[in-house]
Write a structure and sequence with these properties.
Blueprint lengths: L28 H23 L5 H8 L3 H13 L3 H12 L5 H8 L1 H20 L3 H21 L5 H4 L20 H5 L19 H4 L5 H29 L3 H6 L2 H28 L17 H5 L3 H20 L5 H27 L4 H12 L1
Helix pairs in contact: 1-3, 1-4, 1-5, 1-6, 1-7, 2-3, 4-5, 4-17, 5-13, 6-13, 11-16, 13-16, 15-16
Length: about 375
């Protein structure tokens, strides 16, 4: 795929930041870890809300006197409103140079990737020991605490507002308690400031991305794998209840293998992405700029990012076929759960790699923030 021009939101991606900026980011390693932790926490709640009540679907449908098929439509409604994954990658792109971006993306996506499996466990406990209504009270309380932490602690990272972190943010862009900001940012308090007008993304502009040659094939493949993931997760509870006679709590626990696979993949895929980046740079005779970040416009970034994705795709396809066969054949419950683990490992690896390619080719990260949940649905 040919490189496309990048606008101000992703200027750092192609290494076109101001000459005066001596390094890619002035955020210290401790600050970066704190930012990624907050981003992972925020991303945790988006898929959590769509998955936490899977074990209670039968109970809710019975109490509300509706069909299970109608209850499944509520899952789609949750998916339409999601968009935290793209925002997480955007934050990582603001603070991490390209050669380190894989491990930071893996850490930032650990929240969204593990929530779909932790959620059903929590939902099963609440549905079995209390009442399914407590699932939604639980979400309201914890998400409110998360929002408060974000408002108080998360510093502005957008490079068109704070540059490499050396520009002090003003107004709504400033965190209420700047304990995560580095010393360099505090020194800039009396230095440079930028007044940036609030710009809302255009929902219609994202439609052109679907037909764009640099993104269409990646979007379609990502959507197919997400469809596979969603079908497996949404059908797991009713299938195991019917085939193996499990209750809501037991079914909730069966989501753990997939979650463990997702969590491991978030870490491992990040390491693999960074390793592939370094190997590609070495093979091309390119020296990695570890201070200011590489000029991605002159780097075969798609080749580097997609280097290992084919292994994930092949294993995921084989495990999905095997998973369906084991349920149809009513094998021991451990067999489909092992395949669930392998599917979580490989599907998440595919997601992480393809998302890195997608956000590289978008002129504005807000476009993918709008597009991501629509493509999934």
């Amino acid at each position: 795929m040919a490189p496309t021009p990048q606008s101000n939101a992703l200027d750092h991606e192609v290494g076109t930041s101001k000459p005066a900026e001596a390094c890619y980011s002035t955020f210290s390693k401790k600050s970066k870890r704190g930012i990624v932790l907050l981003v992972a926490l925020a991303g945790f709640f988006s898929p959590l809300s769509a998955n936490i009540y899977f074990p209670a679907l039968d109970y809710i449908a019975s109490d509300l006197h509706v069909s299970l098929e109608l209850m499944n439509l509520t899952i789609t409604a949750y998916l339409i409103c999601q968009g935290t994954i793209a925002l997480a990658i955007s934050v990582v792109a603001d603070i991490a140079p390209p050669h380190q971006r894989g491990q930071y993306v893996g850490a930032a996506l650990s929240g969204p990737n593990t929530a779909p499996s932790i959620g059903p466990v929590l939902g099963g406990v609440l549905a079995e020991r209390a009442n399914w209504r407590w699932i939604f009270w639980f979400l309201a309380i914890l998400s409110g605490i998360c929002l408060l932490l974000i408002l108080l602690l998360l510093p502005e990272t957008a490079r068109n507002i704070v540059g490499n972190g050396s520009v002090f943010p003003c107004g709504i862009h400033r965190a209420q308690i700047s304990i995560l900001q580095s010393k360099e940012q505090h020194k800039a308090h009396k230095a440079e400031r930028r007044d940036t007008a609030l710009r809302l993304p255009n929902p219609l502009s994202c439609l052109r991305i679907i037909c764009h040659k640099n993104t269409s094939f990646v979007l379609v493949s990502n959507a197919i794998f997400y469809m596979n993931y969603s079908c497996m997760q949404a059908s797991l509870a009713p299938l195991l209840m019917r085939i193996y006679g499990l209750n809501a709590l037991q079914v909730g626990l069966t989501y753990l293998p997939y979650g463990v696979g997702c969590g491991l993949a978030s870490y491992a895929a990040g390491k693999i992405i960074d390793r592939d980046y370094k190997k590609t740079a070495t093979s091309m005779g390119i020296t990695i700029d570890r201070v200011r970040g590489d000029d991605i416009g002159k780097f075969p970034i798609e080749r580097a990012r997609l280097r290992s994705i084919w292994y994930f795709i092949a294993i995921s396809t084989a495990c999905t076929i095997g998973y369906g066969w084991t349920l149809q054949s009513t094998t021991h419950v451990a067999v489909p759960l092992i395949l669930q683990f392998l599917c979580g490992l490989t599907v998440t690896g595919t997601f992480n790699v393809s998302l890195k390619v997608l956000t590289r080719n978008l002129q504005d990260i807000s476009e993918y923030t709008i597009l991501e949940p629509r493509i999934k649905c």
